[in-house]
Amino acid sequence: MSQEPSPISAVPTCEDSPRGKSRQIVSISLILFFWLTIYAAGMFTPPLLDDVDTIHAEAAREMVLRHDWV
Predict the structure, then answer these.
(1) How far is Cα 33 from Cα 36, in angstroms, rounded to an integer?
(2) How far apart are the C-alpha atoms of 14 and 50, rounded to whole Å?
(3) pLDDT tens digit sequence for 48-58
């Protein structure tokens, strides 16, 4: 009893060909390049609202000192 390959496994995919493999590598490289570009640009700039935490802490300190909870 011999097993015949299923029709699904007999269909060549783009990863099977050398051109498909290089296309896959180029695609992954481009995605990685754009991700690194966007991520690296944001690493050296401060967040949009960097001083918000200090403002909230100062408001809480004033509320405690004055016993004004409103």
Answers:
(1) 5
(2) 47
(3) 666 788 888 99
Measuring CA to CA, how many Å separate 39 from each of 7, 36, 42, 43?
44, 5, 5, 6
Cα(3)–Cα(58) distance, integer angstroms: 76
Give the position of tokens 């991520």: 39
CA gyration radius, the chain: 29
Contact predicate 14/20, CB 8 Å: yes
Q: Provide the whole-model pTM.
A: 0.43
Alpha-helical (H) ranges within 15-51 are: 18-43
Through-space distance between the first and last CA atoms of the chain, rounded to whole angstroms: 84
pLDDT in tens, 2-11: 566 565 655 5
